[in-house]
């Protein structure tokens, strides 16, 4: 699954920033491909207001 960072990390809590970085998302517009498993789904749920899922 591809994940895109659509909103800025400025003003977010440190744990949300760390979650985005663990997914490989650092700047607005970054797209990363991650495996579709429970761990990734949990990370996406935690920062769902900052990211979108890009359909392939």
UniProtKB/TrEMBL annotation:
Top-level taxon of the source organism: Bacteria
Gene Ontology biological process terms, A to Z: translation
Gene Ontology MF terms: structural constituent of ribosome
Ribonucleoprotein as UniProt keyword: yes
Entry keyword annotation includes Phosphoprotein: no
Large ribosomal subunit protein uL30-like ferredoxin-like fold domain sequence ranges: 2-51
Keyword entries, A-Z: Ribonucleoprotein, Ribosomal protein
Gene Ontology CC annotation, any one: large ribosomal subunit
InterPro entries on file: Ribo_uL30_ferredoxin-like_sf (IPR036919), Ribosomal_uL30_bac-type (IPR005996), Ribosomal_uL30_ferredoxin-like (IPR016082)
Protein family according to the UniProt entry: Belongs to the universal ribosomal protein uL30 family.
NCBIfam families assigned: rpmD_bact
Subunit structure: Part of the 50S ribosomal subunit.
Name assigned to this protein: 50S ribosomal protein L30
UniProt source species: Eubacterium coprostanoligenes
